[in-house]
Specification:
Layout lengths: L4 E4 L11 E4 L10 E9 H4 L9 E4 L2 E5 L5 E4 L8 E2 L4 H13 L2
Antiparallel strand pairs: 1-2, 1-7, 2-3, 3-5, 3-6, 4-5
Length: about 100
């Protein structure tokens, strides 16, 4: 399971507005049973959000907001098959996490 891989959202209650999650956890921590993820929300679901905190990413031709302030661990066993990667957009995710943690 690679950092920046995108998976279908395992939550059935939020799956419609948040179709995917992206793993932001370092590959060095693969031995853990969980993965730190950021939900990826459709534009209609996310409403007005600050772009530095919720950058746009592209997954399978769909523009989604990465909701860094909702980052949460998920059991790795729920993340089965990746549908893509946002590694090319990783710097925006790192900046968003920095904004959550440090306000920068």
């Amino acid at each position: 399971m690679a950092q920046d891989d995108v998976y279908p959202n395992p939550s059935t209650s939020a799956g419609q507005g948040i179709p995917y999650v992206v793993v932001i956890q370092s590959d060095l921590l693969d031995g853990l049973a969980t993965r730190l993820t950021i939900p990826l929300a459709t534009l209609s679901y996310s409403g007005q959000v600050p772009s530095a905190l919720c950058p746009l990413v592209n997954v399978k031709g769909q523009r989604l907001h990465a909701l860094a302030h909702f980052a949460a661990p998920l059991p790795a066993k729920l993340l089965r098959k990746p549908v893509g990667s946002v590694a090319a957009q990783a710097s925006a995710l790192v900046a968003a996490v920095d904004a959550v943690l440090y306000g920068i």
